[in-house]
Each structure stands twice: as C-alpha cells, then as structure tokens.
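Researcher: Please translate sequence to structure tokens.
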Amino acid sequence: MKKIGRSIIAAVTITACSFLLPVESFAGNGCGGASWYALRSKTASGERMNPAILTAAHRSLAFGTKVKVTNRNNGRTVVVRINDRGPFIRGRVIDLSRAAAQNIGMVSSGTAKVCYQVIS
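Model: Translation complete:
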C-alpha cells in the first residue's frame, strides 16, 4: 500500500509540474500597461532605485533579467534590467524607471501600452 501511495504522489507531482512550467515560461513575454516611477527608496532586490538608469519592476521575473520593452504607440524600444517588484495596479505588466520611460517616449503621458520580451 505504501508503494502505491508513493506512486500516486509522484504522478500527481509530475502532472502538477507539467502544468506549472508553461505558465512560468509564459511570464517571459507579454503585453499590457506600463507606468514609470522615480523614487529613491530601496527596491525589492535591495539596491537603491535610481531613476537615471534603465531598470524596471515586474511581478515575477527574476532580478537581473534583461527585458526588451516596446511602446506599442510609437514602436520605440528599450532594454531594462528587472530589479524591483510591481506593478500592483490591474492591467499593468511593468513599471519602468524614468530613464527607460523617457527612452520609449512615455514620460509625459505617465503610462503606455507596451509589449515586453525576455532577452536574457
């Protein structure tokens, strides 16, 4: 009976992992709203937020991940490094530093529709 129970647990674990892996890889690309912020507080990664460097906040991508962000309104792109968590507003997928937002032309509007793609 113990062998059967362990086999069932192993099968359930393998099945659960097969469902989770595609979701994790899906987090690498997406589209949605973006906003920008220029605080000088510490980020979730522990480094001080610097609005003059090309960084961003994402809910689940690993710190240090490089992401190409494209403004869907004008086609301009920027590569940022994930160093913080967020955004925490429905419909938004990424928060950019002021410098990154300036590169893709969204500082004056405050928000933009973007697509992002993990590059490393």
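Researcher: Any highlights?
Model: The first strand starts at residue 29 and ends at 37.
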